[in-house]
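Chapter summary example.
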Amino acid sequence: MNIPNAISAIKPVSQTDIVLALAIQLYVDEEVSLAKAAEMAGMNRFEFQKLLADKNIPLRYNLDDLDREMDAVKTFLSDSSK
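The structure predicted for these 82 residues follows.
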């Protein structure tokens, strides 16, 4: 990848840095999900969430997300009581 001299003169930039920045921006712009952005960044979801937290970027979380997590908890509790 050819990085313009004006950019690399300010700060050395690697392809990994560019992909990570792109994954974050696509997530912030709601173009990709958290899971997809993490995959793009080469991280698992929890690593990516920590990265976002370290950069003070809030997670997008809605009622559908809450419903899915509540269903997962109910399934887990049901399975563990057997």
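To summarize the output: The chain has a mean pLDDT of 86.
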